[in-house]
UniProtKB/TrEMBL annotation:
PANTHER family: SI:DKEY-77F5.3 (PTHR23022:SF135), TRANSPOSABLE ELEMENT-RELATED (PTHR23022). InterPro entries: RNaseH_sf, Tc1-like_DDE_dom, Transposase_5. Gene3D superfamilies: Ribonuclease H-like superfamily/Ribonuclease H. This is Tc1-like transposase DDE domain-containing protein. Residues 111-213 form the Tc1-like transposase DDE domain. GO terms for molecular function: nucleic acid binding.
Length: 260
């Protein structure tokens, strides 16, 4: 960035500005080069009408209320990462300001493994590896029927949380859940800042990448994800499932991105 700035910004009295000079001036101003915080893309509708309203409705929920939610999510783990060469210059307390964040969809390219989980304050499901794409039929037959329904039958006071992905909101899925008396917690679309499983996924990702022998193919990656999921204690998951502060943060951000 400093090199580019030096190239396109000639000085009035000194037309040759070196990249090092630019770096020095930025450092004097308290700015340092950092990777931007990556956020999911939000449209104005998501920003105003959904996340903010949802946070207003649920901000007074108690810890006991949240303990009754089975929070579920799917995530695609990529075998390799991008080079992460994008950087921003910011001050120490500007991690989450809009100008210092990068919006992009979370599913990257390359070889990957999709997994599903369900987590609550005191319980968890197994980590389910999903082969191929997950549509509404497979979500109903491979996730809801063998995993979610038995869990909620064993814990009848709990509510299912899943986002508004098309596979979750399809008519066949809604009818299936209604037919089995499964209550569903309303959830705004594209709201990763409200979903505490984002931190769970981050923990799982770090555990897998810290292994002595990193997975070299998708089969090894799937096995490593399942193994590390089993190594995460319920207490660690419980510590990450503290959602009440998220509602307040979204309200302060007027429905926009937060530090979560």
């Amino acid at each position: 960035m400093a090199t580019t700035t030096a190239r396109v910004t000639p000085g009035t009295h000194n037309p040759s500005i070196s990249a090092q000079t630019v770096c020095n001036r930025l450092r004097e101003a308290g700015l340092s080069a950092c990777r931007p915080v990556v956020r999911q893309v939000l449209t104005r509708q998501h920003h105003r009408q959904q996340c903010h309203l949802w946070a207003q409705t649920h901000r007074r929920w108690t810890r006991q209320d949240w303990q009754k939610a089975l929070v579920t999510d799917e995530l695609r783990f990529c075998l390799t990462r991008g080079d992460g060469r994008i950087c921003v210059y910011r001050r120490r307390n500007e991690h989450y300001t809009e100008a210092c964040t990068l919006e992009r969809d979370r599913f990257g390219g390359g070889e990957s493994v999709m997994v599903w989980d369900g987590v609550s304050q005191h319980h968890r499901t197994e980590l389910v590896v999903i082969a191929g794409n997950l549509n509404a039929v497979r979500y109903r037959e491979d996730i809801l029927l063998p995993h979610v329904v038995p869990f909620l039958q064993a814990h009848p006071d709990m509510t299912l949380q899943h986002d508004k992905a098309t596979r979750h909101t399809a008519h066949s899925v809604r009818y299936f859940l209604q037919d089995r008396n499964v209550s569903v917690l309303p959830w705004p679309a594209k709201s990763p800042d409200l979903n505490p499983t984002e931190h769970v996924w981050d923990l799982l990702d770090r555990r897998v990448r810290a292994r002595a022998i990193p997975p070299r193919n998708v089969q090894k990656l799937a096995g490593a994800l399942v193994e590390e999921w089993g190594n995460i204690s319920q207490q660690e998951l419980a510590n990450l499932m503290q959602s009440m502060r998220r509602c307040t943060a979204v309200l302060y951000a007027a429905g926009g991105h937060t530090r979560y």
